[in-house]
Structure formats: C-alpha cells, structure tokens
Specification:
alpha+beta, 3 helices, about 35% helix
Length: about 110
C-alpha cells in the first residue's frame, strides 16, 4: 500500500470504508444521495491528508463496530489499528508510522480488506 497515492487512497476509502459509489457524474453515499460531482470535485474530501475528513472515516469504522487502538511517537507520528475486540491490550501492529490522518486511513483499509 506504500505506493498508493493520496488520491487513490481517498477513492479506496470512499468505496471500501464509507460505502460510497460513483458513476460518470457523481459520488453517492450509502443511500444513493449525490455528495460530490465526479471527477472534478471528488478530492474536496481528502481523509489521507485532512484530519477532519479522516475523523469521518474513524466515525464510520466506529459505526461498523470497530474499536480504535493507537500509539503516538515523540515525533507526532501515529500507528492505528482497528479491531472488533473491545479492550485490546496488545501492541498495535504495523511497521509504519505516519501523520495521524494517513495512519487512520491505512488502518481502516487494513481492517476492512
């Protein structure tokens, strides 16, 4: 996944985590309501780089029954892990550290694959 661009990562999140779909003109939410025009405005939503958008991904994972586990480094980098196991006390898996929005997004995709 390290070679995935932020644009591609955002699209994967929209489809696999958020449950959004798109046709030639629009991104649509789970209920089929148009939310972004496609392709021109699709990247107004950028959870891989925006913490406010990443929190929407985090919230969706919570709604799907996932719990968040995270570690923060002294350099303000993060590792995240989502699990359905409440109270997980183990080490957060993953060899990578990333800025918080990107770390949330990678962890969400790992959890739903």
């Amino acid at each position: 996944m390290d070679t995935v661009t932020p644009k591609d990562l955002n699209e994967l999140l929209a489809e696999k985590v958020m449950g959004w779909t798109h046709d030639d003109s629009w991104w649509k939410d789970k209920e089929g309501v148009a939310i972004f025009s496609f392709p021109h405005r699709q990247w107004d939503w950028s959870p891989s780089t925006s913490i406010s958008d990443a929190e929407l991904v985090h919230d969706e994972m919570w709604e799907q029954g996932y719990f968040t586990h995270s570690h923060q480094s002294t350099e303000n980098l993060w590792r995240f892990y989502f699990t359905k196991q409440k109270g997980y006390q183990g080490e957060v898996p993953g060899e990578w550290w990333a800025p918080r929005p990107y770390a949330i997004c990678r962890a969400a995709l790992e959890a739903v694959k």
